[in-house]
Specification:
Four Helix Bundle (Hemerythrin (Met), subunit A), 7 helices
Amino acid sequence: MNQAHLHLLLNHIPIVGILIGTLICVVTFFFKDHSIRRIALGIFIFSAAVAIPAYLTGEGAGEVVEDLPGIIGSSIETHEDIALIFIWLISALGITALIALVTDIVKKNYAAKFIYVATLVLSLVVLVKAYQLGNSGGEIRHNEIRTGAQSNFIEEVDSD
């Protein structure tokens, strides 16, 4: 198993985790259940933890695929640039979620509510960046999702 395998295995977990954690966070505002709130915070912490090895295997994964036919080097660079921003954001989210979890457990009600709301807001920012990251990663290998891919496909079909 090389770094490309590991990267592909790990990179989906933080993206899906952020989506699920954010949805659960929103739900907790309607149910006020601390156990559900803690589950959302745990998902954020886990997602941040998994993002670290996903990020660290990215360089090796890029080296594995950079010389394959159909790979555009600039798409790898774009993905790397977004990944750098993402790893800082998701790390901040993981730390914020950990603080929110500890504060919630210690029963500092007002502080816990404030930090929880801050965690939710940060999770929305991270979710947007996660979408950009996943999309840019997909564009490296999947020609069909690259910008302009549909128009290129139509031109190729028309010329046949």
